[in-house]
């Protein structure tokens, strides 16, 4: 019981300190980089033991109504994805009322897109791309998945790229037009979201590679992952 209470206190302290950091991150995305963002659904803590998505046995799961949520805490809910904005006043209002809400990027359009893959495969892919001398943009990491941010692409363009492949592992996910990605320093049901490759400091929007430049390495790395890269790990 003492250990459980101690973990609850640590969680509360973390959430109190996380609020200003998340507001600051959301404002940087929206105002400095012109990336549309919105607050994610976040996590809730209940008295019982957690269901799917609970990380610590304390009942911490998704705050949405679905008890079997596949991406606990890591998706838009209210407001929905179409509410994503770069308006500073709206950003401040959202995170003033919900200071611990995850920062969710609405991908596509003029905003970055992303490709995500299992964390082990992501580390392999980055090593391969570094070995090729490839210039990479920001990389978002969770304990289970890594996401490479890339320049905006259309679904037609992505379809042409993937059609040329013999096989595309189902563990690869593509965050394009109408999609979303949780950004640091958010917390989700799988743990803390962090930068594996952080954007360079400054006011200019981070540089992003074209999707063509990285997709081959990501497909190859995912194909060599456990279960042939077919396991969908959140």
- The chain-level structural class is alpha+beta
Question: Which blocks of ≥5 consecutive residues have pLDDT under 50?
Answer: 10-14, 47-59, 227-234
Helix count equals 5
Average pLDDT confidence is 85
Helices and strands in order, then pairings?
Blueprint: H1 2-32, E1 37-39, E2 43-45, E3 60-62, H2 88-97, E4 103-106, E5 113-118, H3 119-131, E6 139-141, E7 145-150, H4 155-163, E8 173-175, E9 180-183, E10 187-188, E11 191-192, E12 194-197, H5 211-223
Antiparallel strand pairs: 1-4, 2-3, 4-9, 5-7, 5-8, 6-7, 6-12, 10-11
Helix pairs in contact: 1-2, 3-5
Provide a descriptive summary of the structure in words:
The protein has 234 residues and is an alpha+beta fold. Helix content is 32%, strand content 18%. The chain is built from five helices and twelve strands. It has helices at residues 2-32, 88-97, 119-131, 155-163, 211-223; strands at residues 37-39, 43-45, 60-62, 103-106, 113-118, 139-141, 145-150, 173-175, 180-183, 187-188, 191-192, 194-197. It has a five-stranded antiparallel β-sheet with strand order 8-5-7-6-12. Strands 1-4-9 form a three-stranded antiparallel β-sheet. Strands 2-3 form a two-stranded antiparallel ribbon. Strand 10 (187-188) and strand 11 form a beta hairpin. Helix 3 (119-131) packs across helix 5 (211-223). It is globular, with a radius of gyration of 18 Å. The two termini are 30 Å apart. The model is unreliable at 10-14, 47-59 and 227-234 (pLDDT under 50).
């Amino acid at each position: 019981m003492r250990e459980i209470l101690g973990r609850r206190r640590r969680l509360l302290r973390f959430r109190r300190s996380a609020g200003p950091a998340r507001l600051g991150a959301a404002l940087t995305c929206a105002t400095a980089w012109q990336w549309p963002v919105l607050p994610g659904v976040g996590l809730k803590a209940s008295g019982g033991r957690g269901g799917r998505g609970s990380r610590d046995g304390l009942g911490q799961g998704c705050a949405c109504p679905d008890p079997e949520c596949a991406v606990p805490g890591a998706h838009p809910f209210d407001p929905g994805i179409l509410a994503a904005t770069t308006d500073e006043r709206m950003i401040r209002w959202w995170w003033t009322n919900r200071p611990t809400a995850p920062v969710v990027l609405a991908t596509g359009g003029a905003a970055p897109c992303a490709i995500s893959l299992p964390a082990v495969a992501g580390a392999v892919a980055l090593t391969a791309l570094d070995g090729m001398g490839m210039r990479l943009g920001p990389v978002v990491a969770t304990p289970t998945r890594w996401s490479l941010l890339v320049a905006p692409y259309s679904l037609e363009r992505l379809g042409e790229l993937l059609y040329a492949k013999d096989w595309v592992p189902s563990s690869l996910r593509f965050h394009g037009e109408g999609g979303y990605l949780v950004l640091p320093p958010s917390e989700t049901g799988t743990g803390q979201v962090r930068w594996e490759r952080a954007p360079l400091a400054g006011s200019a929007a981070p540089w992003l590679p074209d999707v063509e430049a990285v997709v081959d390495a990501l497909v190859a790395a995912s194909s060599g992952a456990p279960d042939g890269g077919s396991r969908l790990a959140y």
